Amino acid sequence: MAINAEPGDWAQAEGATGAGRAPRLIVALFGGLSDPLGALARARAQLFLWMPVALGVGVGAYFTLGIEPGWPIYLSTLVICAVSLTLWLRGAAWLRVPAALIALAALGLLLAGLRAHLVAAPVLQYRYYGPVSGRIVKIDRARSDLIRLTLDRVRIDWIPPAKTPARVRVTLHGDQSQFSPEPGTQVMLTANLSPPPPPAAPRDYDFRRTAWFDRLGAIGYTRAPVLRIAPPDPGDWAMAAHRARMRLSAAIQARIAGQPGAVAAALMTGDRSGLSEATREVMRRSSLAHLIAISGLHMGMLAGFVFGLVRYGLALAGRPALIWPTKKLAAIAALIAASGYLWLAGPAISTQRAWIMVSIMLLAVLFDRRALSLRTVALAATLLMIWQPESLTEPGFQMSFAATTALIVALGPWTRAARHLPRLLRPVLMLVATSLIAGGATAPIVAAQFHRLSEYGVLANLFAVPAMGLVIMPMGVLAALLAPLGLAGPALWAMGQGTAWILRVAEWVSGLDGSVLAIVQPGPWVIPLIALGALGAILTRGAGRSASIGLILLGGAIWLRAGAERPALLIAPEAQQVGLMTPLGRALLKPGAGFISERWLAADGDEATLDEAAARPAFSGPRGARIAQFRRAPLAHLTGKSAKEALPAICAKGGIVVISTRVDHPTGPCDLWDAARLRGTGAVAISATGEVTTTAQIKGRRLWTRP
């Protein structure tokens, strides 16, 4: 029997005995029933490509568990991992591939749990108002366009050090003109702090989990002036890159005025504190937001420009260029440039991911290997999940690897098709093709994570991305090289023209009619099904590919039903908002509670503003006692000093009563949701049939949900 495998493959050494006993399911997963031995050989050859998939299954399992795993679960998982590794090393041939995948999945769960415990830090347990001091480690901007400071080395009055959060984030209100924040500065302020907020609704984005892995134990604001109590420590090397970043950002914005300068600073340094919320919004609506977060596109363009500059520059050296390994020297220079870019741009996950991808590709050039391949992507994804397993849950990780995988898969067909295209049209058509491929690969993730799609995103990227590659990144590199000579002005001017062009494109596209399509939030299994199906379709053949396409169709079918399954009634975690579904869309109790209300409407696929949603006919009555009808019974929301006094009469009518204070002795037949009950349940969703789902039921007792 002919075996479709490389010389020396394990299948040839094992023979057909073990493979002949392979179960049909195992064989079907890896490529066809007609040639089981060849299918297993191909599976072993592709095991490296499946490594991040299996690891991701384990990581995802940890984050989707309803409870925090205890030592029995971890011990059982460790035993499964050890047994699977033994079978992979010494088991029958047909067992080795599935055993390796099971071992990797078990390892992924263990790594995620280990990481969650390693980053553990105290979380504030109650609201606090008073003095706070610490060191500035991050400066960014809130959605309100106000400056935010993240502090470490925190000291809070009346809280012992063992229970003090490792980091806090404070938004600066009021007049702060006398204070110029600088990384490393020791500051003191009077702040209102609270624990990281719970999700706005069950199965919604959980900021507490993100805060846990950032070791962020409290968030809040201050209206008092920030006091500087000590300057940055010159010997604090941990802040050296941050200080350099902010100074370079300030220098760029001083030479390039307005938002074009803020965009240029964000692209070159990673400092986005100069970007206004209006700029962020038009970039999001036009599908160009990825340009202001340093990612694979930026790192690849910078490394590619340096690689080409060094390689073709060395070619001018004459005879030595025929002797020197110019390609490898260019790869070393590009690797140094990419590493410097990483150091300057900071520790953002997207930047680290981009550096790993580019570094692997450049190392492949140094060792005479193929730089662009699925193996490169698989290795980068595996390293990231081992290092920071929580990155799997982030949209940036998902979109980056989806786009990269799709582009590499399409590279072969494009190369064959490009031979038949006119030479002058190839660059334009390639740009269109890459925009369509990357946009199509990331569209389900964007829709699921952000509940909207830019209908003209391909058009915006078609006009904006060339400016990145041809003007902005090359001019940024030239400006860095010429700055020590005081000759960076022309390069910075050209870079400013490029960023101004990108902003004009974003404003034009975002202003088109129907530029944004609202998408209903899918179920929790939709994206995993589509992702596994897409990867399976790429990596398998025969019956395995058919099964993978079935997973994609199943995920799409579940998504189509999502709109009909949206909760009929939503109650915010602290009773600050209530949303009732009506024939016109979700009616809000009031136009306030901005973040929560916006999350609800976005998940519904509803494009109404908060004022429009609050004006929908549903609630009536005075501000402190709003009344509606839900399932032919009263729905009441009580606030203010008279809420407890009005409660007995309203509760006697039955139905659902939401009250923003604690009720010690409820009376009457109503279903009461007071502050104490909501503190234990979090946000509440009630279906049209009366089924109740709470955040606590979905999230369970996890490290980041502990009271």
TrEMBL record:
Residues 71-225 form the DUF4131 domain. The keyword Phosphoprotein does not apply. It is a multi-pass membrane protein. InterPro entries: ComEC_N, Competence_DNA_uptake, DUF4131. It comes from the Bacteria. Residues 267-540 form the ComEC/Rec2-related protein domain. Its main location: membrane. This is ComEC/Rec2 family competence protein.
